[in-house]
Amino acid sequence: MLAMNYRGPRRVRADQKPMPEILHPNDAIVRVTRSCICGSDLHLYHGLVPDTRVGTTFGHEFIGVVEEIGNSVQKLKVGDTVLVPFNIACGQCAFCKQELYGNCHESNPQATAVGGIFGYSHTAGGFDGGQAEFVRVPYADVGPTIIPEGMDHDDALLLTDVVPTGYQAAEMGGIKTGDTVVVFGAGPVGIMAAKCAWLFGAARVIIIDHIEYRLEFAKNYANCEAYNFRSLEDPVLFLKKTTDWFGADVCIDAVGADASGNALQTITGKKLLLQAGSATALHWAINSVKKGGIVSIVGVYGPTDNLVPIGNVLNKGLTLRANQASVKRLLPRLIEHVQAGRLNPKGLITHRIPLEEVGDAYHIFSSKLDNCIKPVLIPPSARI
Amino acid sequence: MENLNEDYTHIKGWGIDADPKNEPTYPMKKYTGDDHNRINWERPPLQPVNIEVLHSNERPNITAVFGTPNPPSGLSGSIRRFAFKHSENEYLHWLPLILADRVNEIEGIVDDLKRGHIPNFFAEKGLKAELKHNPKGFAKRILVTVAVASIAYAMLSKKSKRH
User: Fold this and answer.
1) Which domain holds residue B144?
2) Residues B114-128: pLDDT tens digits?
3) How many folded domains does chain B comprise?
4) Contacts of residue B53 in chain A, CB cutoff 8 Å?
5) Looking at this predicted complex, what is its ipTM?
């Protein structure tokens, strides 16, 4: 089968790889019909996530058709069209029972700090991902969800990660009616977080980035204010001024390890790898939120340390909330939002690229070429 | 902070998920008390272990499922084995893993060549897309590469002449 093949930082290609097999009674094999490249895949692509082995297939946002099931699978049958949450979750451990499906304790032997994730390095379990024609899906009775009849498959595709992650970012913000919410990062997740902030009753939503076309897109898609931090001398000072010198009620970090905007963070975090990526967005979020405010983190960082003003967290009495999105917990509500037209996930998709051109696809997304917001990879088996 | 003078209420679904109870710790975690049973839950059936699986020393066993592609091998595999002797709390876990990744990149090129496959760096790096969508950037990249190579060549040939 054809699959994306990681060869080293900023080097990927499409290669023939062996077909995945059923290795556990609750496995399924899914024929992928669409998969996305996620902003967090770029952290892998840039070589920022430890234990990303050459030969790995990335891809944790995908939908497809069930081709084969293990002998204990009861909720799926061959031929079902499913969306597959990016978390691999057993549904039985103490964490899954508490609906912390992003923190499953039975899906990742390599690290206790994160549950299993498709195609996200051995630090997240060593599973191959969905940027391929076929993929092995463990715990098929837990994660995969049959796509509701009538739902656009592009909408379903973005329900595997972007929508739940953006929604949970807003949810973790504990937004109250009338709140001012600032989102750092106008990538797909940041834009979705801005969009979802309204559902929680925000009265003002501001998004901060440095890519003009993304800010323009975010302004239209999420009905929010959008500012380029390159044109603001100091984004934190600007946010204080624009909130009556108070600070935002809620700040969301939707950037993570690849943040721009601070030379010290960029050099130590991205060039020298002396910290687990550049924490500029989180730094700004902590300093821009009001006293007693909430900082919600969905941007992905590496597993070591980051330079953030933790003293200000104490002195301002902040609450930091963060997690990998618990996709399975959120899906029922999010499907309702999509079906009611309150969320329009497919509106984020700007590029459809054949899997064979995966090298170009990653470069376009990484270098923000051709006004790319969200690229979708189409495997050849989906085009038959 | 009430700031209700904006025209946001036309946004479809505005306020539909507003929940005054949504304070820190709610609703991320549906508390069940299972935490206090520690890791004594009924485990799913275990995936047979037919390959080498490195597991964090912060847990007693391998998880019920795990990924099988790309088990540790070669020099990078040895470095990874060393890394997994140290806990996730230690730099001696993470920094060797990053080193192993860089070594693994070279091993990947050697493996390609052994199989008679010459890596197409141009395609793997997506430079066709760069040429199409950012021709100026592409030209700059080529010029910088040529300049660096020329300087390196000049310095090396100067050195060999001296010898």
Assistant:
1) 121-163
2) 999 999 999 999 999
3) 1
4) 109, 126
5) 0.92
Q: What is the pLDDT of residue A142?
A: 98
Q: What whole-number distance in Å separates Cα of residue A36 and Cα of residue B22?
A: 31
Tokens of residue A226, six digits: 């959008």
Q: Which of residues 64-123 of B touch A (CB under 8 A)?
A: 64-70, 76, 80, 83-84, 88, 91, 94, 97-98, 100-102, 104-105, 107-109, 112, 119-121, 123
CA A49 to CA B101: how far, in whole Å? 9
- Express each pLDDT in A265-283 by its tens digit: 999 998 888 898 999 999 9
Confirm whether B147 is domain-assigned: yes
Task: Give Cα separations from A288 to A168, A192, A253, B34, B136 (angstroms).
Answer: 20, 20, 11, 37, 37
**Mean pLDDT across chain A, nearest whole number?**
96
Domain region containing A44: 2-161+326-382
CB B58 within 8 A of CB A112: yes
pLDDT exceeds 60 at position A68: yes
Residues from chain B contacting residue A100 (CB–CB below 8 Å)? 28-29
Helical H segments across chain A, by residue range: 39-45, 94-97, 153-158, 162-172, 188-199, 212-221, 235-242, 263-265, 280-288, 310-316, 327-339, 358-366
**A58, A119 contact by CB (below 8 A):** yes
- Does residue A108 sit in the same domain as residue A235? no
Each residue's pLDDT tens digit, A243-265: 999 999 999 999 999 899 999 99
Collapsing DSSP to helix, strand or coil, A23 comes out as: coil
Position A223, amino acid = N
How many structural domains are present in chain A? 2
Which one of B39, B49, B65 makes the best mutation probe of the A interface by having the most chain A beta carbons within 10 Å?
B65
Using CB atoms within 10 A of its CB, is residue A291 exposed (0-12), middle (13-18) or buried (19+)? Answer: exposed
Query: Is pLDDT at B67 greater than 90 in this prediction?
Result: yes
Determine the Cα–Cα distance for residues A83 and A103; give it in Å rounded to an integer. 20
Residue B1: which pLDDT band, with cuts at 50, 70 and 90?
very low
CB contact under 8 A, A110 and B54: yes
Q: Is the pLDDT of residue B4 over 60?
A: no
Flag whether residue B41 sits within 8 Å of chain A, measured between CB atoms: yes
Give me the CATH number covering residue A218: 3.40.50.720
Q: Establish if B2 belongs to a structural domain.
A: no
pLDDT at B2: 45
d(CA A33, CA B84): 36
* Average pLDDT of span A169-173: 96
Q: Say what the pLDDT of residue B102 is.
A: 97
* Boundary (domain end) residue, out of A289, A306, A322: A322
Q: Is B56 on the interface with A (CB under 8 A)?
A: yes
pLDDT digit string, tens, across residues A13-30: 999 999 999 999 999 999
Answer whether residue A53 shows pLDDT above 90.
yes
